Amino acid sequence: MNFENIIVDKSDGLAIVTVNRPKKLNALNKATIEELHTAFDSLNIDNTIKVIILTGSGDKAFVAGADIAEFAHFDVKQGGELAAKGQELLFNFIENLSTPVIAAINGFALGGGLELAMACHFRIASDNAKMGLPEVSLGVIPGYGGTQRLPQLVGKGKAMELIMTAGMISAEEALQSRLINHVTTQEELLPLAKKLSEKIMKNSSVAIAAAINAINASYTDGVDGYDVEIGEFGNCFGTEDFKEGTTAFLEKRKPNFPGK
Prior knowledge:
By secondary structure, this protein is of the alpha/beta class. The chain contains 10 helices and 10 strands.
């Protein structure tokens, strides 16, 4: 599949999706959001893909924000539709994907770029990364889930500070705030992402999908996460992966999960 704004590389169960608009610091525009949706949808239904890494091209930016020129003239209705469609097509879509998605943040992750990283299942960053939600400096607020996901990750007070000051934080501060899981050099960023992916791929993809659903349930209004966990736990007992995993354990060998 050919794309204009992203690159998709697949090898040995791993897919690397790269936002490729370096002259725009990989800013998100409508076309890029649609291409990312198409790519993630396709990768999620590909049974050979066990983990997805999301990153940006070049050494300056993961995604430096949304393409402001596209919506600077929007009215109230168009602004609401922009946020609603973006959340449905990409941000909520990635968060609820059954295939694990790791954000490898190389450089700036600002505005919609940080919101995109926060929609991924977890994040790692290079030591030159800068993260922030500067929307209020433009007279608007984060509209792709930033006001919801940032407090979940760093706590209400820290999220309030970051959003209201429109400031940026370093990778080290992001690590201390639990916004990201690991910091490494830019040269080692993708190797670390691949190393983490390899660890994930050794486990049951069916169980991982169930775990993602159960974890996300606890952050969904009106849903009892414990009930979802019980249901997903029970469902695991009917899978071939469960049979293989328990059999391998009893036979004292490494499992070979079929992913079913």
